[in-house]
C-alpha cells in the first residue's frame, strides 16, 4: 500500500477530518457501546466520529501513514480506537463478531477482491448486525471528482442487493451530491448508500 502511504503523507487530511455524510446521517442506528469494524479506515475520520458517539471501534488499513494520522485525530478528539495495520486481502474476518461493519469508499478493490471483502464483512457481523456501505456509483467515472476511475470497481444497488440477498434492507439510495471532503472527494459525485441487517438466525 505504498501508494496510499504517499497519498496520506501530506499534513492535511486527504478526505477531511469530518465523517462522510453517509456516516453522519446513519450513525443513529449504532447504539453507544456497540462494537463496530471500519474497513479500510484510512486517516480515521469515520472511526473517530463513531467513537465520539460511544461506539467501540476497531479499524484497519493497509497504510501505516494513514493510521498514524488516525491515531493523531483520535488523540485530538479524546477518543480511543483499536487500529490495525493490515491489508484488506489479509484481514481475519472471523477474529471477533461485530454489531456493525462499515465500509466507505474502499473501491480500490477490483471485483474478485471486492467479493472476498463483502463475504468477509458478512462473516464478521453478528446475527442481527448492521452492514453500512457507502461508495461511488458507476457514473462517477464520468464525473472524475474522486474514486478509482475503473467502472468495474464501482457499485450499483443491484450488485449490493444480490450480494447481500439474505439481509433485510433498511436503507438504500443511488443519488448525486456535491462533496467537499478534503482534496480527495470534491465536486459533483454519483453515490451509493446501503444499510442492511444480517439475518438474526
From TrEMBL:
Q: Domain named Methyltransferase: which ranges? A: 36-129
Mind telling me which InterPro entries this protein's record contains? Methyltransf_25 (IPR041698), SAM-dependent_MTases_sf (IPR029063)
Q: Which GO molecular-function terms appear in the entry?
A: methyltransferase activity
Name the keywords, alphabetized.
Methyltransferase, Transferase
**Keyword Methyltransferase on this protein?**
yes
- GO biological process terms held by the UniProt record: methylation
Give start-end ranges for the coiled-coil region(s): none
Would the keyword Methyltransferase be found if you checked this record's keyword annotation?
yes
**Record protein name field:** Type 11 methyltransferase
Its source organism is Frigidibacter mobilis
